[in-house]
Amino acid sequence: MAEIKAEDIIIDEEFLRILPRLDDYTFSGLEDSIVQNGVTIPLVLWNGILIDGHHRLEICIKHNLPFEVTHKEFDSREEALIWIITNQVLRRNLAPMHLSYFRGRHYNADKMIQGSLRHSSAEIKKGQNDLFYGTTAARLSDVYNVSPKTIQRDARIAETIDAIGDISSDAKKKILSGKGQISRIRLEELSSVTSDELSETIDSILDGTHQRHRRRVGAYEPDKIGGDASGKSSASLMVLVSKLLDDFNDGIKSLNNKEDPEEVKPAIRSLIDLLEELYGRI
């Protein structure tokens, strides 16, 4: 097989944007290791597109270092995307919001694959179809150890985060890192707001004022949802509490296997924000 040169490798912008960017300290440590020891993990390509090893390639180009590649085969772009996501989830301690985003992107990609297969499944027997498809949210809930309802909500949240990223990549990075001071419930609400309100929210995320000045769309308002002042007859409040508890439980699970205090802090901050969200909406 001919040697692959750096200039021959395709960098796909969508794949690049979903990957977590290493902080300066971690990147510097990786750079020192590669300069001293070389690249010990091959870069991974699919049809010439880089799907794993962006930081390693960047360092190799900078220092003119050799590298090895390995190749993966997938039937579609969505399958490649799912591989990228699962690879990242297995290898990294992700912020709770980034993990939520990955679950949502995985769900949406999986649904696209299923939709494509259904259109071309005339040769597949019905029993095989039922066995293969199942329920996407239920299957992924087993993979990620969250409820099917959480997987479906994550899909909507991922779409909102991508819409924000189309306007401001910096705002998207802040959200995914957990530093954007915005809850998953608020991101779900933003899926149905006007472009002006989305832009206002992005501005508040970038300047750090969102948590203090956010407009609580869908907040508990008894006079608008048919409940009395005490909220005794309101199902809306219970739905909100249920969503917050789902998020809280997912946040608790994200604390598992985190030994570095700096890795634990974003998850704890997320749990505190959820409690404040609940308190402020009642």
Q: Helix proportion of residues, in percent?
A: 55-70%
Number of strands: 3
Mean pLDDT: 79
Q: Please tell me how large the radius of gyration is.
A: 21 Å
Silhouette: globular
Domain count, please report it: 2
What is the chain-wise order of helices and strands?
Answer: HHEEHEHHHHHHHHHHHH
Secondary structure class reads mainly alpha
Low-confidence stretches: 122-133, 212-233
Number of helices: 15
Strand percent estimate: under 5%
Summarize the structure.
The protein is mainly α and 282 residues long. The chain has helices at residues 13-18, 24-37, 54-63, 77-91, 96-119, 126-133, 136-144, 148-167, 169-177, 184-189, 195-206, 210-213, 222-225, 235-254, 261-281; strands at residues 43-46, 49-52, 69-71. The N and C termini lie far apart (64 Å).
